[in-house]
Amino acid sequence: KDMNRLKSLDLVENVSLFPHGIIDNRTQPLMNKRSKMKTKIISTFGFCLPNKGFSELIKSIVLLNKKGYKFSLNMYTSIYNRNYLFYHDKLLKLIQREEANEFIKMDSEYKSDQLILEELSKSDLIVLPYQSSGESSSAAVRQAIASLVPVAVTPLSIFDDVLPVVYKLPGISVENISDGIVDFFYNSDNLYKSNISNNLGPWMEQNSFSNLGYRLEEMIKSIANNKLII
What we know:
With 230 residues, this protein is α/β, with parallel strands linked by helices. The chain is 44% helix and 11% strand. The protein has helices at 2-7, 31-34, 54-66, 85-97, 113-120, 139-146, 174-187, 190-207, 209-226; strands spanning 40-45, 71-76, 104-107, 125-128, 151-153, 167-168. The longest helix is centred in the last third of the chain and has 18 residues, at 190-207.
């Protein structure tokens, strides 16, 4: 879509699509050690911004627990800047109002790549419940995928380029998100999960920063040799 947008502006010959990279991670997720535990750990990750759907996810987890399911939620949501402190405080008040402090935790510390991968790897499922976005791709979803834990996303175009390796929720509402989580754990087609698992290794290899770094180097060499400017 981005290339077609540039094409509509007559930018064709000097345009190339370069993939959004993903961290090379060899950490093994801990979810398999937790598979028999009754309480499922859901995590979410990304800057604490209103469009990310964190309030909807909180309400979804509360709804599921009221229905008798056992889910906990770990929110790794660092503060983008001081202008968005109000949203962080709003989420904390929502958790308190829903009396969900025992099973929903917020962590606003800005963590290193390795540390956040270690934290996310303890999850059974990572959910990115975005409500809207004008961006073409997501860095947060790549961080989640790199944890090697299953990732569920809302059906927005920002996630189109990762659809082969994520589980797509049925919608963006509280009910859609909660239904999708239940479906993933209890109703989802095993073949669907198997396809995602089979796609993950090759997809991560193709999009790893190490491979993309080599690809970028070769592109630069080719441009220099042909004396082209793009």
